[in-house]
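> Could you send the Endonuclease, partial prediction when you get a chance?

Sure thing. Input:
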Amino acid sequence: MESPLYRPTRTVWRLNELLLSDEPTQAQLLEQLNNYFTENDTEEISALTLWEAHKSVLRGLLIRISAQKKKEAQRQMTTLAEQITTLETLHKRTRQEEHYRTLLTLRRKLSDLIASKHHRSIQRSKAFFYIHANKGGKLLARMLRNQQTSAQVSALRTARGTTTQFPEEIANEFRSYYEDLYNIPPETPDADETGTAGDIARYLRDFNPETLS
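Output:
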């Protein structure tokens, strides 16, 4: 069963900047550019169309290269994991130093592949937070929602020693606590001259501020 309001989200492709520093990729891009402008720089195609279209050509090439590299990296990780598992079993049985050194090498290669994959994810996360850090949007709303949830008081032990989960009773307990904490002496017939109110009244009566001449 599927809701008619459901709309699948589209995946937004983003350039992996590491491809631009890869020499084989640079060579393919240069070759593609030369072929494109040689074949399409004609009188029938305007300069603007020629320039705008070459971006799509390069984008398609980069998407293909990125997909190939991702599949190759995944294949290498799977192969290394299988080799490590097999070699670990063999090393437990033989205890040979050569097997141990090979095992360390394979583990190092697998660790490098995983680190490279995580490096890309960290870069994208940093870019996302940099772009949305000072803007009111989904990121801020999600952070405030989590903060509100963590600060919410769902239960409280009352002054009577019982525990309550009712919001109204919790609010009354907080009110009573702060009333006692910041309590002002009760009003009396001479309230103007006693307690905190009396101190304030005497201070204001005796205060003689300097005047500007």
